[in-house]
Amino acid sequence: MAQTVCVIVSTSDKEQLEAIVADRNRPQKHVARARVVLASAGGDPVQRVAARLGVSRPMVWRWQQRFAEEGTDGLLRDKTRKPGKPPISAETVAHVVALTCADPPHEVTHWTGRAMAKAAGISLRSVQRIWEAHKLQPHRVRTFKRSRDPEFVAKMTDIVGLYIDPPGHAVVLSIDEKSQIQALDRTQPGLPLKPGRCGTMTHDYKRHGTTTLFAALNILDGKVIGRCMQKHRHGEFIRFLNDVERAVPPASWLKPWSTTTPLTSTRRSGHGSQGTRAGPFISRPPPGHG
């Protein structure tokens, strides 16, 4: 780009430019522009002015042109520019929200950010902002179960009451069972963890059948009474209840509740036994309670 502007600085303009350069509170970009104009007033070529001030030639050309058009005031403000990208329209936002609340295409389970960005023709970050603004989380699903038991409210009150307001001089236990736990072992022993090296184990393993874990949580002190058994039948569950009863101090009431089938007053085992009862019961009353 050839030099097309001849910079002519009047006495008043020179005083204003020198005042800008001498002002320590001025932004440095204003000082640099004033120095360009003052250096150009002597008629030196653009290349020499740029070399003397340590700036680029396009900068010298730009502010020479600005000073010639708008004077000193033009050096103190930047031109307004349009944003690089227009903001997302309300129609696009509504479209994204409607698509998110509808069923996803094809056989996918939920909308992903990239799939929505491709469908709506916007960026992934824009989709994330829209979801965040509208509190949409398509990857999360909250499950629920509605009971058909007509005595649901009474049973729920009984269970919640045991946790919130347990009876005096009583032990409240939450009992659950986990069946079909795989007992696995590695084919070779691994190396332990050491500084600078992680622990190791083989990728393959040996099966040793399955086991069933029975556990009772004392909600007062957090202690757990647990036992593993090879089978999962009513007989094993009764033996575990007997173990729990023996582990509790004699001067206590025992109020266990099975969380495997919650909100049921009587729990029969999955093997059809009529003799197993895991609902709330009381045994070994302390002295003085009859």
Give a verbal description of the structure:
α1 (11-22) runs antiparallel to α2 and α2 crosses α4. It contains nine helices and four strands, in the order ααααααααβββαβ. The protein is an alpha+beta fold and 290 residues long. A hairpin with a 5-residue loop joins β2 (205-218) and β3 (224-229). Strands 3-2-1-4 form a four-stranded mixed β-sheet. It is elongated and about 105 Å long.
Reconstruct the topology from this structure.
Elements: H1 11-22, H2 28-40, H3 46-53, H4 57-70, H5 90-101, H6 113-120, H7 124-133, H8 152-164, E1 170-186, E2 205-218, E3 224-229, H9 234-247, E4 253-258
Parallel strand pairs: 1-4
Antiparallel strand pairs: 1-2, 2-3
